[in-house]
Each structure stands twice: as structure tokens, then as C-alpha cells.
Amino acid sequence: MPMEHQPIRRGGLRSAGYDRDRRILEVEFDTGRLIQHGGVGEEIARRFLTSGSPASYYRDNIEEEFPLKRIR
After folding, report:
1. Whole-number Å distance between alpha carbons of 31 and 41
2. Contact, 12 vs 30, CB < 8 A?
3. pLDDT value for 2
4. What is the pLDDT of residues 9-26, one digit of tens each?
């Protein structure tokens, strides 16, 4: 079942979604690349999704901190 995303459209990010039960953050980039990060806590996901600078928050707190799986 596809994860529901909310638009971001800033800093090279197109959209993102979070599955609280599975602790998976899904991020879609302007390039069409879609990735999932596993083990992401709800507070980290909330801060990312509500950040005034989501691309910076992603780079600083998520990108290299959580296991990554490329979807497309």
C-alpha cells in the first residue's frame, strides 16, 4: 500500500510521508528518486515534515543517520 505523502517542493525535495507503525520515512526528490529511511522516530519525522528548511533538516538529521532503501 503506497504511503501518503505531503508536498514539500523546496530544496530539491518534492514530497515526504511517514508511517508511524513501521517507523519509515519516505522522501521523494525533484529528480523522481524515492527513498525510505527505516527506524525514524515520530519526533524526528514531525520536525522534518514541519521544518522551515526541510532539505537542511534532512541532510543534518536523517540522511546519514538512518538506514536507507532506494525505491526508485
Report:
1. 26
2. yes
3. 75
4. 899 999 999 999 999 999
CB atoms near residue 30 (< 10 Å) = 13
47, amino acid identity: R
DSSP label at residue 68: E
DSSP per position, 13-54: EEEEEEETTTTEEEEEETTS-EEEEES--HHHHHHHHH-SSH
* Residues shown for the chain: 72
Amino acid at 49: L
* First-to-last C-alpha distance (Å) of the chain: 16
